[in-house]
Amino acid sequence: MLQKLDIEDDYVEPEQSNSHLLQPAFYWGLVKRRWLLFVIPFFLIAAAAVGLALLLPATYLSEGKILVQSQQIPTELVRPTVTNAAQERIQVIEQRTMTRENLLAIIDKFKLFPDKRTLMSVTELVALMKKSAKI
Q1: Domains in the chain, number
Q2: In which domain, by residue range, is 25 found?
Q3: What SS3 class is residue 21?
């Protein structure tokens, strides 16, 4: 009824029991057995990403900063070459960038409004670009 167990023969060191985790064959066998668990989520996420990229409209954003400093050298030593106030200089820059030629060049360079180009005149495209741009 009582049976003698030999404990020393059944004992396996912990390092040997986890040694299969360090072998690439273990992971390859895991991938081969459970390939659907890898493939299905990959294709679902890829399809969702492609669908989202096609459905959302393209948005372009460009930012810039202009640093306007007052003259550091006293006016008694050097006569200033720029006499306009900072706000006036910024308005001049805005007027130069929002000209019809510059806006048309931006529209052509970045191929903006591709679906509206056939339906709208050039003047309407420039007006749409002015409306879309914020300074």
Answers
A1: 2
A2: 14-55
A3: helix
